[in-house]
C-alpha cells in the first residue's frame, strides 16, 4: 500500500485553477459485486467533497453486467445525482468486459482528456494482451488507470497490476473487510484527478502517499 501511494506523487501536476478534473469510474457490476457496489455508492459523495477546494470533479460511471451489457453515465458534477444513478443499478451475473471499459475510456479521453480512470473488480476473464494495449494507449493520452482489485484471486490481481503499470497508474488490493481502505483509495484518486500530483501530495494519510509512490516520474 505504501508503494501504491508513493507512485501518485511522481505524476504531472495539474493546476488547481484549470477546468474541473475528469474521472472515469469503471466498475464490475456482475453478480459477485453487489456488496462492493453498495459500499462504493456510499463513498461517491466523499470523492466529490475531497476535491471541492482544488477545482472540483466531474465523474462518469461506466459498468458492465449480465449478458454483454455495458453502460455509462454522462460526466456528472453532482454527487447526489451520481449516487442516485449508481443506486439504481442491480448487479447481474455475466462475464467481465474490462477491454470494453478501457476502450470506452480511450474514446472519452480522445474527445476531452480524462485525468484519471479507476477500475474496480474481482476477476478478469479475457485475454490480457489486448487489455494491456488499451491501457498503454490510455497512458499515452495522459489518462492513468488506478486498478483496485478485490478478493483472493492472484491471477486477476496480477492482471490488474499490469493494467495499472502500463497505463502509468497504480494498483492496490482490498477485501470485503477493508471499506476504509477503499474509501481512502477513491479519495486519493479523486484528489489526483482534480489537483494532480500537487493535490495528492498534500493529502495526508498512508494510503494517499502509497498511491503517489507508485506513479512514474513526471514527464519533462
Care to describe what's here?
The chain has 220 residues and is of the alpha/beta class. It has one domain (2-212): Rossmann fold (3-Layer(aba) Sandwich), CATH 3.40.50.410. Helices cover 47% and strands 17% of the residues. A hairpin with a 3-residue loop joins β2 and β3. It is globular, with a radius of gyration of 15 Å. The two termini are 27 Å apart. 49% of the residues are buried.
Please give the number of β-strands: 6
CATH architectural type: 3-Layer(aba) Sandwich
- Taken together, the total number of domains comes to 1
Order of helices and strands: HEHEEHHEHEHEHH
Beta-strand share of residues: 15-25%
- SS content category: alpha/beta
Q: Terminal Cα separation, in Å?
A: 27 Å
Shape: globular
How does the major sheet shape up?
A: 6 strands, mixed
Amino acid at each position: 500500500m505504501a508503494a501504491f501511494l508513493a507512485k501518485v506523487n511522481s505524476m504531472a501536476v495539474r493546476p488547481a485553477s484549470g477546468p474541473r478534473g475528469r474521472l472515469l469510474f469503471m466498475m464490475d457490476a456482475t453478480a459477485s459485486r453487489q456488496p462492493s457496489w453498495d459500499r462504493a455508492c456510499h463513498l461517491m459523495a466523499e470523492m466529490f467533497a475531497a476535491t471541492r477546494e482544488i477545482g472540483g470533479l466531474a465523474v462518469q460511471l461506466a459498468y458492465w453486467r449480465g449478458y454483454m451489457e455495458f453502460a455509462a453515465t454522462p460526466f456528472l458534477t453532482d454527487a447526489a445525482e451520481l449516487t442516485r444513478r449508481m443506486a439504481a443499478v442491480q448487479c447481474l451475473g455475466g462475464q467481465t468486459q474490462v477491454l470494453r471499459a478501457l476502450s470506452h475510456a480511450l474514446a472519452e479521453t480522445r474527445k476531452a482528456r480524462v485525468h484519471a480512470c479507476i477500475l474496480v473488480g474481482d476477476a478478469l476473464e479475457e485475454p490480457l494482451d489486448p487489455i494491456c494495449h488499451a491501457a498503454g494507449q490510455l497512458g499515452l493520452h495522459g489518462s492513468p488507470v488506478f486498478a483496485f482489485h478485490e478478493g483472493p484471486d492472484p491471477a486477476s490481481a496480477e492482471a490488474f497490476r499490469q493494467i495499472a503499470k502500463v497505463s502509468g497508474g497504480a494498483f492496490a488490493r482490498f477485501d470485503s473487510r477493508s471499506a476504509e481502505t477503499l474509501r481512502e483509495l477513491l479519495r486519493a484518486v479523486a484528489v489526483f484527478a482534480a489537483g494532480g500530483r500537487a493535490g495528492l501530495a498534500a493529502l495526508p494519510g498512508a494510503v494517499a502517499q502509497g498511491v503517489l509512490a507508485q506513479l512514474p516520474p513526471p514527464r519533462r
